[in-house]
Design a protein that fits this description.
The longest helix has 35 residues, at 446-480. This protein is 55% helix and 4% strand. It has 585 residues and is mainly alpha-helical. The chain contains 19 helices and 4 strands. The N and C termini lie far apart (79 Å). The chain has 3 domains: 2-228 and 367-422, no CATH class; 243-357, no CATH class; 460-579, no CATH class. Helix 2 runs antiparallel to helix 5. The protein has a 4-stranded mixed sheet with strand order 1-2-4-3.
């Protein structure tokens, strides 16, 4: 056990588990996924020219992420998969770092390992780790900062404390260039750590000076970014603000956050027995009312949703009833993986876990489990961080992070991938609460729970990329028959890649540099089927498109359908080519 701890084998196994699940999923495709198509083309240009050239529709700075992707392209040649493997490398490092961070936060080695696996083997993490999106890169930066802050609080000497603060500042400032919200480490988390260290004058002065340098670096990066052609400026406050929309998104996030950590949330279910029978009956009555509003065919149906969320709310783009990213990008309706009965059950289990957590926190007269000694076997660090220190360190970061998401909820909806940074904080608090309030070690049932979610995540990641490969095959079939790529609706993600083959930027109205970058797209021909985000890709004027339904739009086109595998079903899914224009009279 001492050798395993010295080699950090539990953390290494967390990384290897992610790698194994990704290899089983076979996450490769030669088209864009969500926003990452333009990002990958930027990395390709950086590898070829040595310059960062934005191409529109991009709000994260990307920064070091582009250089890592360009390095992979230089080493292995260009392909979409090669660029995405740079994200997978960072995802493996993040899994390792998360396990070590949880241990540093006073969580036992075994608990930290299971908690880490609950997050990094979840569908949202596995899917994002196989893309070139900036979410995993941002999470890596936040974790580095949190780890450095924890080490600074645990260091006995001023010198070691200052060095760990420098580590936290410099790594967060540098790696936060991929996703700007990660800079809340320098802007919020490190000042919180300095507040906790305020009694040590030398540490405080040195920490303030170093953090000031980090802040100046962030300011310089933002000034550079705002002057780059064809980037998109994000505004903290939208021009119009709907309180009702924001409250609805917040309410949904209260459901979504514990659901994304389901293996840990479910561990609090047994605590429901501590509730009074009347309280439990009230909970079941309220839940039944919620299910009724979510399923009864009235004007409220669709506004009140069950877990997992649908992509229409913003939440649920990566973790929804179909198990594929944003299932409304193609024509027709895809097969449903999670039916209503399963949705009701998942919603009940998630809410039950949350109520069980509240019950465990409110219990009185109970005996708190005696802490285990700080031995190598228990995995507890020698200078354990107290709940007060954790709350002072994490609460300002969590609240600031969440408040910054609320304006986005009004503009385009909160995406569940935005929650990665918050999930780390919630995971840490859930594990520490279970360990302190219930028992020292997570029960054995947590192992099959993590395994079940990992199995589901592997299936969904495989199915998503299998569908993307089918979309590429269908598009190639049409091109081989003489149809121009610009005459095919590939879906919004790949349409951006096709647009960038005919223009140097996405036609985004939010682009301000140069001033004439955006030009309103000419209207589609009369009667044409809807094209998602057509205004951003005016060169794509489709005659045909991909559909889950052969009778969508103006019916089937004279091309063979393409099948794709759908685990665990033996019956494959099917994509059809459909006509986008009405037949000529």
């Amino acid at each position: 056990m001492q050798l395993a701890r010295r080699l950090r084998l539990p953390a290494v196994l967390c990384s290897l588990a992610v790698l194994l699940c990704e290899l089983i999923s076979r996450p490769y495709t030669s088209m864009g996924v969500c926003d990452d198509g333009p990002y990958i083309l930027m990395a390709q240009k950086l590898a070829a020219t040595g310059h960062i050239l934005y191409n529109g529709n991009i709000t994260p700075m990307l920064g070091w992420q582009l250089y890592l992707g360009a390095a992979f392209i230089k080493l292995f040649g260009f392909s979409f998969t090669v660029a995405r493997m740079s994200t997978l490398l960072v995802a493996l490092l993040t899994a390792f770092l998360l396990q070590r961070t949880l241990v540093r936060a006073g969580i036992h080695e075994r608990n930290a390992t299971l908690g880490t696996l609950a997050l990094v083997l979840s569908p949202i993490y596995l899917m994002l780790s196989a893309t070139y999106m900036s979410d995993v890169f941002g999470l890596f930066s936040i974790l580095l900062c949190l780890y450095g802050c924890l080490r600074s609080l645990q260091s006995a000497s001023d010198r070691a404390t200052i060095l760990w603060l420098c580590f936290a500042v410099f790594t967060n400032a540098l790696f936060g260039t991929s996703r700007q919200i990660a800079w809340l480490g320098v802007l919020v988390m490190i000042p919180s750590a300095l507040y906790l260290l305020r009694s040590r004058r030398r540490v405080l002065l040195a920490g303030l000076a170093v953090n000031l340098l980090g802040g100046l670096f962030i300011l310089a990066c933002m000034q550079w970014f705002l002057r780059q052609p064809y980037n998109v400026h994000e505004h903290l406050l939208p021009k119009t603000f709907s309180v009702a929309t924001a409250l609805l998104q917040i309410a949904y996030s209260v459901l979504d956050l514990p659901y994304l950590l389901l293996p840990v949330t479910l561990l609090f279910l047994p605590q429901l027995r501590k509730l009074r029978l009347r309280t439990l009956a009230i909970f079941l009555l309220l839940f039944s009312g919620y299910v009724f509003l979510a399923t009864y065919p009235s004007h409220l149906r669709g506004n009140v949703q069950l877990l997992p969320m649908g992509s229409g709310t913003g939440l649920g783009e990566w973790n929804n009833v179909t198990g594929i990213f944003a299932y409304d990008l193609l024509q027709g309706k895809p097969p449903i993986v999670i039916g209503k009965v399963a949705q009701v059950l998942l919603t009940l289990l998630t809410l039950g876990g949350v109520v069980g957590l509240i019950a465990s926190l409110r219990q009185t007269g109970g005996t708190k489990p005696a802490p285990e000694p700080a031995t190598a076997e228990s995995g507890v660090v020698s200078r354990e961080v107290s709940w007060r220190q954790l709350s002072m360190l994490l609460a300002p970061f969590f609240l600031t992070y969440y408040l910054l998401l609320i304006p986005r909820s009004v503009v385009s909806g909160i995406r569940d991938r935005y929650f990665l940074g918050l999930l780390v904080v919630i995971l840490l608090c859930l594990l520490r609460s279970y360990q302190d309030q219930i028992q020292q070690r997570l029960p054995l049932v947590s192992i099959p729970l993590v395994a079940a979610v990992a199995l589901y995540a592997v299936m969904m990641t495989h199915n998503m990329f299998s569908l993307y490969r089918a979309r590429v095959a269908l598009a190639n079939e049409l091109v081989a028959a003489g149809v121009a790529p610009t005459a095919i609706d590939h879906g919004w993600e790949q349409n951006m890649v096709v647009e960038l083959q005919h223009s140097n930027h996405i036609n985004d109205p939010r682009t301000t540099i140069p001033a004439d970058a955006y030009k309103p797209a000419p209207p589609l021909p009369a009667g044409s089927c809807k094209v998602v985000n057509y205004d951003q890709t005016p060169h794509v004027r489709p005659l045909y498109g991909a559909s889950f339904d052969p009778n969508a739009c103006y019916g089937p086109a004279p091309f063979a359908p393409v099948h794709y595998s759908r685990w665990p079903y033996s019956t494959p899914g099917t994509l059809y080519a459909v006509r986008y224009l009405p037949p000529k009279a």
